[in-house]
Design a protein that fits this description.
This protein is mainly α. The chain has one domain. It is built from 13 helices and no strands.
């Protein structure tokens, strides 16, 4: 298996792990305040990845990766600040809007990542990939559409849109660090962004939740942010920000698929329409990736 194929697998795995975030966060937000929730999610990612790396180093073959240096400091600081803002905005948005609306608007991250990669970082985006991004986004819209109420533009929608934009910028900052140790990046992102969000939570007067909820949120953070971000960074190193984001955009679809398996819901017609559109979009992405593989 070549590097780009492996990177594609990492991108899809990252999407699958992140797909569980919104449905579980929507449940936990009833027991944990929004900003506090964001802090413990990212802190769980950082602490969990630290322990994961330590255990892997003891029982597995340790792979030496290039550490971060002072040259990457501007991107590292920007990454941390954006990762403080994004989950706080998302959690507050989830508190006052529907999960369908949140999932729909969270797809703006694809657009933001690709446009920033094109305009700011001069990353090439092919016409075929733009078509794929459009189709996968369309599939996500169809999949999450629950009637006109889902499109109501309220303050919750604005907050989720702000979170998606922050992550679009953050994805490109992380892209500049993707050749470094992915584990170190996740630990730095998780610990510093998590602590930053917790400080913000205390400043606005939020209360510390019960210990059981802290542990559950941190475990969710490790899985849906820590492991997901780690695989996402590993994918970016060989695919680039725009293409990784395109693969990652199947997360809403996977989230619905998990819901069908766990809850036993019956798929509607729009589910199958979205599935067809998603397959076409995915085939375009794979075709674009195979073209790159043949040219390199």
């Amino acid at each position: 298996m070549n590097k780009k194929t492996m990177a594609t697998a990492f991108a899809i795995l990252a999407a699958a792990l992140y797909a569980i975030n919104i449905p579980f966060s929507k449940i936990l937000i009833e027991y944990v305040d929004s900003t506090m929730m964001a802090g413990f999610l990212y802190l769980g990612a950082g602490v969990g990845m630290f322990l994961y790396t330590a255990i892997s180093g003891v029982f597995g073959k340790k792979v030496v990766k290039e550490p971060l240096t002072k040259a990457e400091l501007p991107y590292t600081v920007a990454m941390i600040l954006l990762d403080i803002a994004a989950p706080i905005l998302l959690m507050h948005g989830l508190k006052i809007t529907t999960s369908a609306n949140a999932t729909l608007l969270n797809n703006f991250e694809i657009v933001a990542t690709s446009l920033i990669a094109l305009v700011v970082f001069k990353e090439f985006v092919s016409k075929k990939l733009w078509m794929a991004i459009g189709l996968v986004t369309l599939a996500s819209i169809i999949l999450t559409f629950e009637g006109t109420g889902s499109f109501a533009f309220n303050i919750g929608s604005l907050l989720v849109l702000g979170a998606a934009t922050c992550w679009g910028f953050e994805n490109n900052c992380t892209r500049m660090l993707s050749h470094k140790s992915s584990e170190e990046i996740v630990i730095i992102k998780g610990v510093f962004s998590g602590l930053g969000a917790l400080i913000a939570a205390f400043l606005v007067g939020e209360q510390i939740p019960e210990l059981i909820y802290i542990l559950v949120v941190m475990i969710l953070g490790f899985v849906s942010y820590g492991l997901s971000i780690n695989f996402y960074i590993m994918a970016q190193a060989h695919l680039g920000a725009a293409k990784t984001s395109a693969y990652y955009s199947i997360a809403p679809f996977l989230g619905v698929a998990f819901s069908l398996l766990l809850v036993g819901e019956r798929p509607s017609l729009q589910f199958y329409v979205a599935l067809v559109v998603l397959i076409v979009g995915t085939l375009l992405i794979v075709s674009d990736t195979l073209k790159d593989n043949l040219e390199t």
